[in-house]
Amino acid sequence: MQVAEKRRTYFRSFEAKSLRTRSLLTQVSDKLTEICGSTTFLVVHIIWFSTWLLINTGNIPMVTPFDPFPFGLLTLVVSLEAIFLALFILVSQHRQSYITTIRDEVHMGVSLIIEEELTKVLGVLSEMRNEMGIKKPDPELEKMSHRIDTAYLERTITEQLRRANKPLVEKLLKELSETISHNPDNKKNT
Question: What is d(CA 35, CA 54) in angstroms, rounded to the nearest whole number?
């Protein structure tokens, strides 16, 4: 019974833990991100912009335009709104990124434990085959019973990512040199 209780405690949602411990600013950011991602928010903005433009282009009689073309006040309001919305969204994304990192680390740890356990089980299976007198070689079983070199996997993946994500300057220099070498005017001058 204790083991089951420990598992339940351990496997509580990372999201729920994060939601309980977030700061007031993060709570506000999450709520605003939720509101701003809604269809209602989109519809309200369409109505608001349409009304603003109709009023300030003089298309509604008996209403004096207060922000004539080029709509400087509208530009200011929309710019400030965009800045604050971007900041709130970044705060929410940062929290989500943190949760994802924890989940990934736990998943990797569990996967490594499973790999060790399976390697042990395959070793026992190999011993059982020997004890039973099974002589037929099984190269797959032999290969699988060796531990995975996680350091090698990490180096390989890191190298692949490094090659795929070359620095911008390196890419620009390469493209520039290719452009120069393929330029027909350049060949005429040499």
Answer: 26
Q: Which residue has the tokens 């006040």?
A: 73
Those residues with Cβ within 8 angstroms of residue 98's Cβ, 6 or more apart along the chain or in another chain: 18
pTM: 0.54
- Distance (Å, rounded) from C-alpha 175 to C-alpha 105? 38
CB atoms within 10 A of CB 91: 19
pLDDT in tens, 47-71: 999 999 999 998 888 888 998 888 8
* CA-closest candidate to residue 30, choices 21, 42, 22, 41: 22
- Three-state SS string over 26-57 comes to HHHHHHHHHHHCCHHHHHHHHHHHHHHHHHHC
pLDDT digits 0-9 by tens, 109-147: 888 888 888 888 988 888 888 888 888 888 888 888 877
**Tokens read off for 60:** 């509604």
Query: And the tokens for 90?
Result: 């970044």
Give me the residue label for tokens 């209602």.
40
The CA distance from 134 to 61, in Å, is 96
- In order of 72, 108, 124, 133, 148, the CA distances from 127 in angstroms are 81, 29, 5, 10, 20
